[in-house]
Amino acid sequence: MTEAPLERVWSRSGHAGWDSGDRDVLDWYEESTPSDGSPWLRMNFVASVDGAVTVDGLSGGLGSDADRRVFDLLRVPCDIVVVAAGTVRTEGYGPLRVGGHHSRLRTDAGYAEQPRFGIVSRSLDLDPDDRIFTEAPVRPLVLTTRAADRDRIVALSRVADVIACGDESVDGEELRTALAATGLPRIHSEGGPALFGAFIASGSVDDVCLTVSPLLASGDAGRIAQGPPPSAPVGLALAHVARAADDTLLLRYTRPAAA
C-alpha cells in the first residue's frame, strides 16, 4: 500500500520532509506523552475548514488518504480505542482489528498485538450477538453507568467486560482511572461529539488530534464537541502541524503540564 505523503511543516522539535515513514510519523504523535503508566486520553477528529464534522451524516466524507493514514497510525500507541455507541452505529464500526503492519508497529512499541475496544453506552442498547463482540480479536469493554439496566449488564457480560464509570452518565475521570486500573492507561478515542464534550467538561482530555479537511461543507453538520461547557475554556498548546499533498492539515494539540 502506498503511503499518503506527509510533510511536518512545524513542531516544537523541528521540521520533517515528505519522505517520513510510519515510524517517523508515530514519533511525531508520541513526543511529550507520558511513559510512567499514568492515565492519558487522546481524542482524534476530522472537520472541514468551516467546522463541519460530517458530510451527509458521516465523518468519512471529510477524509483523505492522509487522514486515513494517521487515523490508522493513531490506533498503534494505545491500550484501548474508546468510541461512543452512537458513533459505532452511525459510522458502521465492525470488530476493531488493526492490520498486520500496524500490529507489528504495536508490538515493536511494547503494546499488545491488538488494542482493546471500549464502547461507551449509558443505555446499553447493544446486541451481545453483534459481530463487534462475537468476532472481536480480543474481548471488548462496555463502559457504562451505575444506573444501567442490570439485565443488560448480565447479557453483555457474556461477551465483554462491563465497567461502570459514573452514576447517571459516564464520567471522564472515572473512565480514565478505571481503565488504568485494568491495565489500559493509554486511551485513544474516536468520538463522537457528545463523548468528547463530556470528556472536556470533566477535564479529562490530554491530547487532541484534528484533521482539517480542505473543504467547505456548510449544511447542518454539528461540531466535534457538544454538551455542557467546562467551568472555563481548556487551554491547549500546539505540538505540530503536518500537511498532505492535497492541502489537508493534521494538527496536534496537547494539554500543557501543570506548573
Structure overview:
Keywords: NADP, Oxidoreductase. Pfam families: RibD_C (PF01872). Residues 39-249 form the Bacterial bifunctional deaminase-reductase C-terminal domain. This protein is α/β, with parallel strands linked by helices and 259 residues long. It has one domain (39-254): Dihydrofolate Reductase, subunit A. The protein contains 8 helices and 10 strands. The chain has helices at residues 22-30, 65-73, 85-90, 100-108, 131-134, 150-156, 172-181, 193-201; strands at 6-11, 40-48, 80-84, 116-120, 141-144, 161-164, 186-189, 207-213, 237-244, 249-254. It has a 10-stranded mixed beta sheet with strand order 1-9-10-8-2-7-3-4-5-6, sandwiched between helices. The protein is globular, with a radius of gyration of 18 Å. The model has no long low-confidence stretch (mean pLDDT 93).
Main CATH class: Alpha Beta
Quick one: biggest sheet? 10 strands, mixed
| Count of alpha/pi helices | 8
Q: Given the helix and strand composition, which structural class is it?
A: alpha/beta
CATH architecture: 3-Layer(aba) Sandwich
Quaternary structure classification: single chain
CATH third-level topology: Dihydrofolate Reductase, subunit A
Describe the global form.
globular
What's the CATH H-level homologous superfamily?
Dihydrofolate Reductase, subunit A
User: What does the average pLDDT come to?
Assistant: 93
* Sequence stretches where pLDDT stays below 50 over 5 or more residues: none
Secondary-structure element sequence?
EHEHEHHEHEHEHEHEEE
Distance between the termini: 44 Å
Main β-sheet, spatial strand arrangement: 1-9-10-8-2-7-3-4-5-6
Q: How many domain regions?
A: 1
Gyration radius, rounded: 18 Å
Helical percentage: 10-25%
Beta-strand percent range? 15-25%
Q: What is the number of strand segments? A: 10
